Amino acid sequence: MAHAYTPGLKVAEKTIIIKERRLPLKGDVLVKKGERIKAEDVVARTLLPGNVHPVNVAGLLGISPQDLPNLMRKKEGEEVEKDEIIAESKGFFGLFKTQVRSPVKGKIEQISLVTGQVIIREPPIPVEVKAYFDGVVEEIIPEEGVIMKTTGSFIQGIFGVGGEKIGKLRVLVSSPDEELKEEHLKDDLKGCVVVGGSFVTASVLKKLEEIGAVGCVVGGIDDENLRQFLGYDIGVAITGSEPLKVTLILTEGFGRLEMAKRTFELLKKRDGEKCSINGATQIRAGVIRPEIIVPHEKIEEIKEEEDTLKEGLVEGTLVRIIRDPYFGEIGKVSALPPELRVIETEAKVRVLEVELRDGRKVTVPRANVEIIEV
């Protein structure tokens, strides 16, 4: 089965987009099934238990744990402020008293007569889940969240950093091979997701942060500029939790890489419209791709644009090569030889022939390509 281990990268002008929006633990769902809502609307809310702070009150007072209740000023379940006295020794003739103060604001959760510790829990942390994109509530997950649905343009990238952002799509360059530079940036980009061409530098990304932009979509970046932007080397893990003001999405990969023409033209076509982006990326098991979603005003019942994948790799399938020496090249499958071939590493693998955009035909292992769904 040629398609069994072939990853796909989707670039679709119109497709059905369905996303699960779920709380980390049970809470309240705030919307109804069938309701049309905006990306910024909160669909579910809950409270995460606050952090726990154990205080060895018996040890600090120099008493046995059994004597602790007699010296506590606060009882279990009572609220306390930071630095408020929670326990006090009797002292000598009312003098030289030892006091224990709360290290945080919170609530006395437990007074242990075994260990002599007092457990103080900080106030609960409110957690809200937003819709993420304009659409319709398709299903309700009781006490946990919703399943959102919309019709729109959907583009997956190769790599990204930064979490979910919502903003206005702004294409700032005239061609997919043009580098995004400071001269392209204007003061009216606050709240926008900007689109460049082949490359972006750390200085431009930091300028976008100063302006107030929320996202940047470009073909590529090199590791040095990414390191300068993040402030550290990124490891091989899932991204998306970085506390960044600007979410960065690479459509092609690392280096100075021209954005795929189809991707650029689609983004240009939706220029000025509201979009949702997420830089979360995972390249190991359970692949997660960064994404750009541009909902249509009207949610249509259309057929999913996945028919091309049902047959897997076939002649004419659009693919991207994801290994050197043709890394980043896009072309169409021109042949699928059935026999195993010996490659440079002397391993025997299945290969395919790809006709690149400049007309060259190259032979690469099937594991070195990913399907571009169009």
Strand content: 35-45%
- Integer-rounded radius of gyration: 28 Å
The low-confidence parts are: 1-6, 304-310
Could you name the CATH class of the largest domain? Alpha Beta
Number of helices: 5
Give the number of DSSP strands.
27
The CATH architecture category of the largest domain equals 3-Layer(bba) Sandwich
Write up this protein:
The structure is a single chain. The protein is mainly β and 374 residues long. It has 3 domains: 185 residues, Glucose Oxidase, domain 1, CATH 3.50.30; 70 residues, OB fold (Dihydrolipoamide Acetyltransferase, E2P), CATH 2.40.50; 67 residues, Roll (SH3 type barrels), CATH 2.30.30. 10% of the residues lie in helices and 38% in strands. The N terminus is likely disordered.
Q: Quick gist of this model?
A:
By secondary structure, the chain is mainly beta.
Looking at this protein, list some descriptive labels.
OB fold (Dihydrolipoamide Acetyltransferase, E2P); SH3 type barrels; Glucose Oxidase, domain 1; 3 domains; 27 strands; single chain; mainly beta; 374 residues; 4-stranded antiparallel beta sheet; 5 helices; 16-stranded mixed beta sheet; disordered N terminus
What is the secondary structure topology, with strand pairs?
Elements: E1 8-22, E2 28-29, E3 36-37, E4 42-48, E5 52-55, H1 57-61, H2 68-71, E6 79-80, E7 85-88, E8 99-101, E9 106-111, E10 118-121, E11 125-130, E12 135-141, E13 145-156, E14 159-161, E15 165-171, E16 192-195, H3 202-211, E17 215-221, H4 223-230, E18 247-254, H5 261-269, E19 274-278, E20 291-295, E21 318-321, E22 330-335, E23 341-342, E24 348-349, E25 351-356, E26 361-365, E27 369-373
Parallel strand pairs: 1-27, 15-16, 16-17, 17-18
Antiparallel strand pairs: 1-13, 2-4, 3-12, 4-11, 5-10, 6-9, 7-8, 9-10, 12-13, 13-20, 14-18, 15-19, 19-20, 21-22, 21-27, 22-25, 23-24, 25-26
Helix pairs in contact: 3-4
